[in-house]
Amino acid sequence: MKLVEAKADQFVFRFSRREREMLVHILRQFPVGSRPVGPVSKQGDPDKLAEREALLAEAMAEQRQQDRHLVDAFLGEQGRFAEVKGGFHLRLSAAQMDWLLQVLNEVRVGLWVKAGRPEQPRSMVLGGHLEPALTMELCAHFQMVLLGAFGGVVD
Length: 155
Hints:
By secondary structure, this protein is α+β, with helices and mostly antiparallel strands. The chain has one domain (about 1-150). Helices cover about 60% and strands about 15% of the residues. The protein contains five helices and four strands, in the order ββααββααα. A four-stranded antiparallel β-sheet has the order 1-2-4-3. Helix 3 (about 95-115) runs antiparallel to helix 5 (about 130-150). It is globular, with a radius of gyration of 18 Å.
């Protein structure tokens, strides 16, 4: 994946067939987790904290459901990946890029939580979580390209 054009609010990325397949595979995994990553707070009234955590979990579940529908619509849109010689082009607005960054981050963090929140990716690989570790690295790669595009970095 690389940025090939950046004009105003439109960005065009070039994907190889394999890169497109990897991005689609990652997006189809969304949402990975269903709970907040951590507690709202470590201090305070336990009953109030539990109530706030329940509200947060409910709001996040609703947001994930909405985002899941957006992912389905994104992937199902005819011509989303326009075939060009030697690959595909993906045209995104700044708002779509921001949303895609959020979805990729949700997948990445969700896989990390599912793997037991290891401090080092190496421990995931050694612990038998090779595919989630690779998926997390791919998410990071796609995120870096998107973030670079906001800075106007065109290869």
